[in-house]
Design brief:
By secondary structure, this protein is α+β, with helices and mostly antiparallel strands. The chain is built from 8 helices and 16 strands. The protein binds 2-oxoglutaric acid and fe (ii) ion (FE2).
């Protein structure tokens, strides 16, 4: 049995199969407990092959190594909610639940700009938003690989992840599937460039400020650089390292699911810091790549508090909300 290198639980999907066995029930219960207690877990035996993940990292490195003019031909549109294509360094500034225009301006011009570039891919068959691709002649083969990777992550979501969570919450196995029929997810390639270690130490540059994710849940693939940290459930404000572990997929839930569950499930703060100075690095912090896959509900669905998450001792805290409106509000605050 794999030992977790941090205090995150590990959920093993090896015996999940079609979700009907006692073992599948236990997997669901473990996933539910992880979402309730910390909001993060390492997942193993997801069926997403490690070679496929490694290949996606290779493509990501090739993409970000392209000249800036080539990447800018696929630039992210100015509107935050049109979340596709390439964002150059400084384009996105993560903020945490700030929606006031003046306050957002102050954060963007602030002292700790996120030093990263990203490329966002949505569902290739989406009815509401088209992908913005790097031109095929500039990166032949990338589009097909990214679409396949997107689909393999989606396959895990619908065949195991969402059914397991539903089972763990004593809901019908297809409960969450009924709200996630459109596969309006987002695959994000992230590159944190190398920089002199001193600029991270002085705070002139940062990687990703502390934030929660917005949607239903996130699958996260990291390279071997490290730097991801998660807020400790037992002592909030203390961040604990969540190092990469080969052959695992890191999982966390987002604010939308937390709200849907009347705060029964936790969407936990996390951030990315540059790793501590190492003598062997000669004063330069090496680059880092990561690949989050954000799972979101269908934009036209309206959610009510989840069955089992409210009652006489636990009144409903939130109004019902439309998934699309919720996501647009959160995206417009960060771009
Ligand atoms: O780069 C990472 O490891 C995490 C990125 C992240 O938290 C995000 O994009 O929401
Ligand atoms: Fe995140």
């Amino acid at each position: 049995m794999l030992q977790s290198p941090s205090c995150l639980p590990i959920v093993d999907f090896v015996k999940f199969e079609d979700g009907t066995s006692q073992e599948a029930r236990e997997i669901g219960q473990q996933l539910f407990a992880a979402c309730r207690d910390i909001g993060f877990a390492y997942l193993i035996n997801t069926g997403i092959p490690q070679e496929l993940v490694d290949g996606m990292f290779d493509w990501s490195a090739k993409l970000f190594a392209l000249p800036i003019d080539t990447k800018m031909k696929a630039a992210h549109p100015p509107e935050g909610w049109k979340d596709r294509g390439y964002s150059s360094i400084g384009r996105e500034q993560v903020s945490q639940m700030v929606f006031d225009t003046e306050e957002l301006k102050a954060i963007r011009s602030g002292k700790f700009p996120d030093f990263k570039e990203s490329f966002e891919v949505g569902n290739e068959l989406s009815k509401c938003m088209q992908n913005i691709w790097i031109q095929e002649e500039d990166l032949p083969g990338f589009r097909a690989y990214a679409v396949n990777f997107y689909n393999i992550c989606h396959e895990f979501q619908v065949s195991k992840l969402l059914p397991a969570l539903a089972i763990g919450m004593d809901l019908p196995q297809d409960f969450f599937l009924n709200y996630h029929k459109d596969a309006e997810n987002k695959l994000r390639l992230l590159h944190y460039p190398a920089a002199p270690t001193s600029v991270f130490e002085s705070g002139e540059k940062g990687r990703v400020a502390a934030h929660t994710d917005f949607g239903t849940a996130t699958l996260l693939f990291q390279d071997d650089c490290g730097g991801l940290e998660v807020d400790s459930p037992s002592s909030p404000g203390e961040f604990m390292p969540v190092p990469p572990v080969p052959d695992t997929v890191l999982f966390n839930i987002g604010d939308f699911l937390m709200r849907w569950s009347n705060d029964t499930l936790k969407s936990t703060l996390h951030r990315v810091r540059a790793p501590p100075r190492k003598e062997s690095d000669n004063g330069v912090t090496k680059e880092r790549f990561s690949i989050p896959y954000f799972i979101s509900a269908d934009r036209d669905k309206t959610i009510e508090c989840l069955p089992g998450c409210f009652g006489p001792d636990k009144p409903k805290k939130y109004e019902s909300i439309n998934a699309g409106e919720y996501m647009n509000m959160r995206l417009n605050a960060i771009y």
